Amino acid sequence: MAASLVLAVVIVLHNLVPDVGGLGLVIDSAAPWLGLGIPVLLVLAAFARRGRPWVAALVPLVAWVLMFGASIIPLKWTAPPASATTLTVASQNVEASSGTGAASAADLVATGAQVVAIQEMDAASRTEISSVLDATYEYSYQVGTVGLWSSYPILNAQPWDLGLGWQRALAADLETPEGLVSIYVIHAASARIGDHADRDEMLKNLANVLPNDENDRVIAVGDFNAASTDRAFKPILSQLSEPNQSDGLFGFTWPASPFPVTRLDHFLQRGLDVISNTVIPAGGSDHLAIVATVNL
């Protein structure tokens, strides 16, 4: 029973686990997977032949459902119908070293998105990606490792270093038929065990910027290098909401192969009704792409 209580406490309070030696980062990123400890408790209790085995699993099970149950409900169960004017945004970290940026761009165009956001471009992949996307999208803006392509005019575009001194993000307005929509494209610094200060700084500065946005409708999309359960991500989630997956579950995006175990890539918004949100493979990147549609 003691192990059951410990597991339940870690599930609920994982953000309070001290980040000593990177433990906090690991626990936060793996938080949904802590539920795998529940069947282990059942097996151990059954072999011990003491009490009722299901009791050992009940407390952490309730804790897991309270923490993560609502986030895995399919969005399609509650999503509003599409309005007369919708906006689809596709985004991917294309993994520059994969050499498949052009293939990723072609796959994102095939989604029918009006807006495409790209992260982790290097000089070579930027040229290849641009050659594909420029043929479909009239407007574009790129800076550093990120780029934005749009069927709608891009206004007030500007680079953002978000405190790091080099450009890994951008901010702009999309001039849609229903008015302006702010969009931020983010490629957060990498987060590794014992080395995520730069990422934390970027996320903190983005959280500080968001309250000053003058538009009622805001989108932030890209590779945040933070799971939805990461403590450093919480200040952003307190201002922008992340929609559930259209078909349910967590929508993990990394690594693309052999199977994803965490969601580092996000579509966040406020002031919009999300009607679909999915992840898809694109190109040969180690990140799956995200595709989300909202009513304007």
Automatic annotation (TrEMBL):
Any single Pfam family the record assigns to this protein: Exo_endo_phos
Keywords attached to this entry: Membrane, Transmembrane, Transmembrane helix
Limits of the Endonuclease/exonuclease/phosphatase domain: 93-287
Transmembrane regions listed in the UniProt entry: 32-48, 55-77
Protein name: Endonuclease/exonuclease/phosphatase domain-containing protein
